[in-house]
């Protein structure tokens, strides 16, 4: 088991976001704005889905890492801290997923 966490990755994304785009892929993505970061996140999510549905375990691991990274870049660009997302997940754990989903506004 690794000690590396999503919080570690979020910190790295924040650090690299401050670099010049010529030196940082993270900064280059963020330079493209919300549409660029969302598009990359979506592309990686689709690739993860393909890996999952084709039984490509190694691909799913790799694409899932890409999904998590690009999600954190997208959140950073939208000024949404990971802690806010984690707090929302924590809030939802007090009831079943079916109850939580039913409570959402349609």
Produce a short descriptive summary:
By secondary structure, the chain is mainly alpha-helical. The chain is 75% helix and 0% strand. It has 6 helices and no strands.
Q: Can you describe this structure?
A:
With 106 residues, the protein is an all-alpha fold. The chain has one domain (6-103): Helix Hairpins, CATH 1.10.287. The chain has six helices and no strands. The protein starts with 5 loop residues before the first helix and ends with a helix.
Which helices and strands appear, and what pairs or packs with what?
Layout: H1 6-17, H2 25-31, H3 33-53, H4 57-77, H5 82-92, H6 97-103
Beta strand count: 0
Number of domains: 1
Overall outline: globular
Helix/strand-derived category reads: mainly alpha
What attributes characterize this protein structure?
106 residues; mainly alpha; Helix Hairpins; 6 helices
